[in-house]
Amino acid sequence: MAKQGENNVKLGLFVLAGLLVMMVAFYMIGKNRNIFGSDFELKVRFTNLNGLMEGNNVLFSGIQAGTVKSIEMINDTTIQVNMVIDSKIKTFIHKNALASIGTEGLMGNKVVNIQPGKDAGSSVNTGDLLTAQHMISTDEMLQTLSKTNNNIAGISAVLKTTVLRLDSSAIFDVLNDKTIGPSLKSSLSHINTASKNASDMTMGLNSLVIQIRQGKGTAGLLLTDTALAGNLKQAVRKLKLASDNAGSLTAQANIILSSVNHDMNDGKGTLHALLKDSLIVQKISISLDNIMKGTDGFNQNMEALKHNFFFKGYFKKQEKKKQADKKLSAQ
């Protein structure tokens, strides 16, 4: 009987020990503690935890690396988070790694994300303090979205007013006019043609300038030939001299005309007598009439001599000689 009671006590102690071990195991599993491995501790300081609590997960490059062990208030602006990290990941975490607070999914629990630094560095040691990186939280995103929505609402109201004004203006009439499109295309085509023509003209002018610089063509000779330039200067000098002479002759002619005009106005000189004395003019007219009559009589006498017996042979010889000269000149 005593032996059976002893066995019952041993069984009760064994069951109690198993329950204690099971409770400890459940506690460790609930805290994401490494039961059969070793851990090490890292620290990071934030200004705002955004709801991070003890026991939340710690991720390294998206991989489960440990849990948040404890949270300590350093001062009114600094909060220190102590993390327990699996020692298997220790070699991969360097001292220049960055720690930030994120969320599991869109609305899940808060987690600490550890990201590798840009440059290679030495591995961390137990108790090292990592650099904190500020990440935009969901609340900040929602506030920004709220401000953006308000701005969009204001812009939409302004756009609505602008569109209503444009609808009542002549701009839409211009846009709806089907004849503007072909006219605009034609104008652009003309502009393109004009641009090509201007380009061709520019190339032609460049070529002409190059030829002139090389002394080619008339313009090149005029600009580059020193001898021709000297001849031009001499010709211009002669033209100037001729112009001066013409000016002198004009001045002398003016003097002569002034003298003649003075003589005519004063009734002096032969020209005045010829132009203004009617008696002299009448005598000159009679003299010219007598000369014409005398010339006519002389012609009649010469015609009579041609038919005279003594002079008839002479005139025939002269006529034959003229015919022979005409034949020679024709040949």
Automatic annotation (TrEMBL):
A family per Pfam: MlaD
Keywords on record: Membrane, Transmembrane, Transmembrane helix
Domain of life: Bacteria
InterPro entries, per database record: Mce/MlaD, MlaD_Phospholipid_Transporter
TM helices/strands, residue ranges: 12-30
Residue intervals of the Mce/MlaD domain: 41-117
Name the UniProt record assigns to this protein: Mammalian cell entry related domain protein
Organism listed in the record: Mucilaginibacter paludis DSM 18603
